[in-house]
Amino acid sequence: MRLLILDRDHALYAALIMAAESNITVVSGDNPEALRDAAAECPVWLGQPDLVARMLRQGVHPVWVQSTWAGITPLLADDLPKDYALTRAVGIFGQVMSEYLLTYLLAHERQFLGRLASQVGTQWDDRMPGSLHGRQILLVGTGEIGQSVAHMLASFGVDLIGVARNPRSLLPFQRIGALSDLPRLVQTADYVINLLPDTPETRDIFDLALFQRMKSSALFINVGRGSSVVDADLVTALEGNRLAGAIIDVCRQEPLPPEHAFWHSPRLLLTGHTAAPTLPGPMVELFRDNLARFWGGQGMRGEVDFSRGY
Q1: pLDDT by residue (tens digit) across 117-168?
Q2: How far apart are CA 281 and CA 143, in angstroms?
Q3: Domain 2-92+278-295: which topology?
Q4: For the segment 292-303, what is each residue's pLDDT rounded down to a tens digit?
Q5: What angle do CA 55, 61, 65 make, to 5 degrees?
Q6: Given the residues 10, 88, 108, 225, the one annotated as active site
Q7: Any catalytic annotation for residue 115?
């Protein structure tokens, strides 16, 4: 079988796959235009959605594409074909996302940035820190990653509330509401964490009306998709001291343009879409598992329903 790898880490992926799968011929690179002819002979592709989308626009059609990203928004464009099997990267982001969130939750409780500012100003900062114990954390999105984060946070004695498309009883959440319940649920949360995918139902849901319902001491963290947040409304909320702060990992436009207001918004930290990077080792294991399922005619992990967008 011939495999096309389209990813900025293509050389590492190729080495890992060829070492594990001797019956696969690999063609790899990060320039779709240069690989068009080779791609036509590869029924299976592994790669990042933006590069795969460029290849599809050249009229080359795969049988199956394994995305190296959890998000597959570039492949949902109206002008692209959807007559092939597409699988998202799943089951490999829980720990790295949990580590990211724990970093900023603890930094907020321990007033890390404020203490750094005090040090720069040669001020002795002896304010007492807070603790995660007893804090209410609202996870907006209770899929695979959300559940992994919830299990990590449960050991800190937090009150875990979830928001899901289909509310149900799910441990370790104390309760789970629907998206329509979000305006009510944010009112008591100490932390509001967005983990939602990019769908028509999730766009622009974090607007000024919602931010105004949050506690002024609440921290907002967006590690889902930039399209969920109305940027200008978040800036207004921060400038009006309606929120304690915001940690923004994902934006509508990336890289963020120099003129964007986020760069200069008070108490807003940008982390450059680094919350949950794809680690090549686990990604290759997922690909090999799905490859065995593909050859065996079985359902694959992370299969995308194009009509739903995930």
Answers
A1: 999 999 999 999 999 999 999 999 999 999 999 999 999 999 999 999 989 9
A2: 22
A3: Rossmann fold (3.40.50)
A4: 999 999 999 999
A5: 80
A6: 225
A7: no
